[in-house]
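Q&A log
Question type: sequence-to-structure
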Amino acid sequence: MELKTEGGDEERREVFRRNLLELMRRHKISLKELIQRTNISRHVVNRWVRIGAGKPQWDHLVRLAEVLFLSDPLDLLDPNLFAKNAEVIPPKHRSVDRQTNPLVEIVAQSRPDLFRPFTADDWNEIFSLHGTGGPLTEEGTIQAAEHINAKRALRQKFEALLETEHFAPLAAIIEVMYRDCQVPR
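Response status: OK
Response body:
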C-alpha cells in the first residue's frame, strides 16, 4: 500500500524519523527492542533511524504504532504529532459520567502514556464504566484503559485484514463465533 501524505518525500522521511526517535525516547524503547517487538528487519529500521532513508510500508507503520502506543499509524508521519499530544486531557462533555469516575482524570494525568491514544469514544467508555460496587478504583481505571487500548489495537488489525485476501476466511470465522454467542429464541 502506497502512503500519500502532504510534503515532499525527503520532508516526510525526516518527520517520520523524528517522530519515531522521539516516541522511542518517550517510551524508553531501544533500537534493539523496537526491532524485536515489531519484527521489522534491522537493516530497514537502521535506514529510518540513522539516515532517514526509505519509505515506511503500511504494515510497518501498523506494527510501529502498536509498539509505540499510537491509535493511528499515520500519526508517525504527522509533523504536528507532539503538538497535538502534548497533554492528555479528556473531552469535557458527559459530565454525569465524569462525576461517576473522578479518579479517571487523576490516573490519566499520572499515566499519560496509557491514555494518549484515547479517542472521544474511548473517554466516553471509560467514564461510563463501573467497578464492583461503584466508581472505578485507580487499579480498575488502569485495567480499563489497558483493555480499551487492546480493543482498539485489535480493531485496527481486524480492519487491516478486511482489506486483504483474508476477508472471506475471516468473515466465516466471525460468523461461526457470532452464532455460538447468540441466545436461542
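Response note: The chain is about 65% helix and 0% strand.
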